[in-house]
Amino acid sequence: MTAKPPTIEQLRKIAGEYSFHFDEDELESYRELIEVVLNDSYQQIDQLAEVESPPVKYPRSSGYRPGPEENPLNAWYWRCSIKGADSGLLAGKRIAIKDNTCVAGIPMMNGCAAVEGYVPEFDATIVTRILDAGGEIVGKAVCEDLCFSGGSHTSYTGPVLNPHDPTRSAGGSSSGSGAVVAAGDADMATGGDQGGSIRVPSAWCGIYGLKPTQGLIPYTGIFPIELTLDHTGPMTTTVEDAALFLEATAGEDGLDPRQPRGVQGRRYSEALTGNAEGIRIGMLAEGFGWPGLSEEDVDETVRNAIGIFGDLGAEVLTEDISIPLHRYCLDLWAIIGGEGAAMLMHQGNSQGTNWLGHYNTSLLEVFGRGMKTRADDLSVTNKLAMMYGQYMQNQYRGRYYAKAQNIRLRLRRDFERAFEQVDIIAMPTTPMKPQELPGPDAPPSEIVDKALDNLSNTNTFDLTHHPAITVPCGRSEGLPIGMMLVGRHWDEETVLRVAHAFEQTGTYGDVRVDQQAQEEDRGLVRGLVSEVKERLT
Fold this sequence. Notes:
Layout: H1 8-17, H2 24-46, E1 76-83, E2 94-98, H3 125-132, E3 136-141, E4 161-162, E5 165-169, H4 175-182, E6 188-192, H5 199-205, E7 208-211, E8 232-236, H6 239-249, E9 280-283, H7 296-308, E10 315-316, H8 329-347, H9 361-373, H10 380-396, H11 399-418, E11 424-428, H12 444-452, H13 460-464, E12 468-476, E13 479-486, H14 492-503, E14 507-508, E15 511-512, H15 515-536
Helix pairs in contact: 4-5, 6-14, 8-10, 8-11
């Protein structure tokens, strides 16, 4: 396909965008010069083959879209069975892949009408590594519309329902991943995290969710939002599974610009000693008591759970750590996430420019066309980010984005200084329990609030890139509560060790987990789901 030269009218519009003042003769001169570039450079490049995409190593069938009878939580986008190696760290594990991730031959929608119909031709690095480790991929889990929501109500395929209470949100954006693991339909799942999208659904579904240090697991082949925020990681029912997943998938792939050169994984499962002896743990003062957001039972449950570490050999600081900038992180994130997404994900058709690595040109083309024809079908959260992000870029040319990124460096240094005093910083994963899903006639303000308010604690560590895990630590009114444990950069071993020590107590705070009761709860949930889905849609 040879690129077509511009018309004079097209050039006049571009000139106006850059405040150039050309007369007709000048415009014609530039048109002729541009045509030379197109006929020379662009035509030559169009005839060359791209570098080969990452290989597809394991055979698979195309799978199928599940019907309501086998998808009661609306959490599966696609079902399939792709078997990996005969042995490995993940042998025998059933793994769901978040539907923002390329699996060759399996449809990928990323929760968005503009991507519907896209079928990747290669496997993301994380997918290949899962299969190399012996895992079986059992389907694609629903995610939110372009992953731009911390709730589970924005996907084009409809809301994902919380397995503990189908009138409540499962959290987002890895909403389906959290629901299918909590419901027992998969042993583990991949998640993506730009503002909390691994940890929020894990906390609200009552499972473990680890956001590693940025770049530890390659992001290659995963739909991005913003290069400085993108993370991917595991969502599991046990800490051991999270550690095994990380062992199997961590390390440089040479294709992801988010990865430092030479980054390597470690034997994370060896860190699971069952105790927290000698670990210093501090609570973040600003992570509790959010005005208008925090629920007392959540704060109290998490503080009680952190206190248990004293019985496990850890030193729990009696005085909270204070980092005032934490209370401004949602504002920083709104600027970086909004303007960054407008430039990379929306204007850049999911790929953007100015980075070294593997570009998914087929997705770029499909998404670019979809954004021209189906933009009206995007969620309120995406439309809002596109509108204000583009406006601020047009009007202020990135000034506020740049300032927010510079303040982010201050925030990162503040936490690094705090880690001179402690090994782990703890707080509630979300200030509130799972929220009720908005109804079909909810105003845009409610849709946005329930998509973003729950990110108040989690988004900080997408900005600072510190590893963080959410740990089920209690229940209130039958709903799970998550405790977030944050560690130093590249120190996933300590984060996992402390989470594992708490898990070994067999408690949700001061209530022992009753697996039989959980199974009975799931049975009741499945009976209610159809009625609730009908009301919500």
